[in-house]
């Protein structure tokens, strides 16, 4: 699967459904590839970072010019990055989208380095990656604090990566959808309509993206501004990784660790909901939390300085009736099993995804929940193989949905097949009991 998706410089998530390079897909793919070929894993990340904009953003898609325009929508001629993104410093030699995806990249770079430190140092991998990764984090922290409270906001559901989550329904309801006749969905050529976002959702995605493009990709107040727990938790995790990278390069990393701890406290202050027993998204424009339980609100289990009582509550929530881990489900569903909008097949409205389950396996292990982490690891490995390495699965039956032979499913399966203690040794986050409040 990873061989079939390799283009010579990066890996496509799926040859048919996603024929270009995707930002957080490449980070997860590099994490798996490091076990097979550290060089290819480094190249994967270097190809993505080469498409970075001058303002620091890493675009969510890097387009392959050899792929026909009608193979994927929105295509390069929709985004018009070289012209519409000129003021923001879009590259001239490669076509990209203008939005971003979750910042998993520094974490991936550090793990890839550890797979073969000698090769990494000989090639100057971290030396070249570090300033780009630092600029990426600077862009998010300085340009995307749209709520003024210290957290990063996403301006499009595609940026958070969980495209049609019910967590977005309330803020998306303010967006007037683009007319259906104004675009053609290429995804329905390769996926079942029952598994994909609705035409209404897609019309709103298109409208948001077009409006952002027509503003020259300038960041500022808009109809959709959401502080998301997973996006910010992954930024915090990558801040810890950047601290390790800085130390490897002979620089001080203490300021980044301090920032990561401060961001964790801010995350708790702004997004924790005691009644829900988890983190919720904040609708910045409305100035309120969105009362929907999505898997995004569990991802902060990754954070080493998360208060112990909150971590314990998150574990109870993920294993309780709303997500059912270890009971009714083997993998973590993307949305509340008891929620009115739950759908076991439709994209991020209920199915279980392998990347979020992988993140939660890591988080449970970090929080000392070794038995639960082992059970989730076993469930991921079994379900990945049985489903043909599906893009996502029905959380109850494990029936494959979306594409099969999916890139990050194969890559993260590889990672879990290798030494499960490697994460603990990588030093990205504190070990249990260290630096805890």
TrEMBL record:
GO MF: Glc3Man9GlcNAc2 oligosaccharide glucosidase activity
Keyword Protein transport: no
Record flagged with keyword Transmembrane: no
Entries under Pfam families matching the protein: MGH1-like_GH
Residue ranges the record marks as coiled coil: none
Positions of the Mannosylglycerate hydrolase MGH1-like glycoside hydrolase domain: 18-409
Keywords: Glycosidase, Hydrolase
GO biological process terms on file: oligosaccharide metabolic process; protein N-linked glycosylation
Leader sequence residues: none
UniProt record similarity statement: Belongs to the glycosyl hydrolase 63 family.
PANTHER family associated with the record: MANNOSYL-OLIGOSACCHARIDE GLUCOSIDASE (PTHR10412)
Name this protein carries in UniProt: Mannosylglycerate hydrolase MGH1-like glycoside hydrolase domain-containing protein
Species the sequence originates in: Streptomyces viridochromogenes (strain DSM 40736 / JCM 4977 / BCRC 1201 / Tue 494)
Taxon lineage: Bacteria, Bacillati, Actinomycetota, Actinomycetes, Kitasatosporales
